Amino acid sequence: MLLPAKSEVARQLRRYRAWERMMLASPADRAVRAAFEDSGHALCALMGKRCAREAADAAERYLRAGLAAYAEEQRKRPRTATAARRGPPAADRHSPAGSGTPSGAA
């Protein structure tokens, strides 16, 4: 498992928190909101998370814990089950005979 440098994680987390405070102070400012979202995206990419809040939490845990402790924690965390890909519902599937009409259609 590749882990980012702690100095970079700390820098990105400080940037994210600073933009978060600014965004909360002026939520209607589009430039501030865009910068906040950009900082969240960078933190997500750095920490390998999909949600900025999860990335910030992971960054804080990473900075508190030692490198080995964080890696071990990540290995032990249960992975969320992803939904299996499947086709459309049975009512919308075409008949295997190739009639071209969905099953149940006249």
TrEMBL record:
List the biased-composition ranges (Low complexity): 80-90
Offer one Pfam family short name for this entry: DUF5133
Q: Where is this region: Disordered?
A: 72-106
Q: Which InterPro entries match?
A: DUF5133
UniProt name for this protein: DUF5133 domain-containing protein
Source organism of this protein record: Streptomyces cyaneogriseus subsp. noncyanogenus
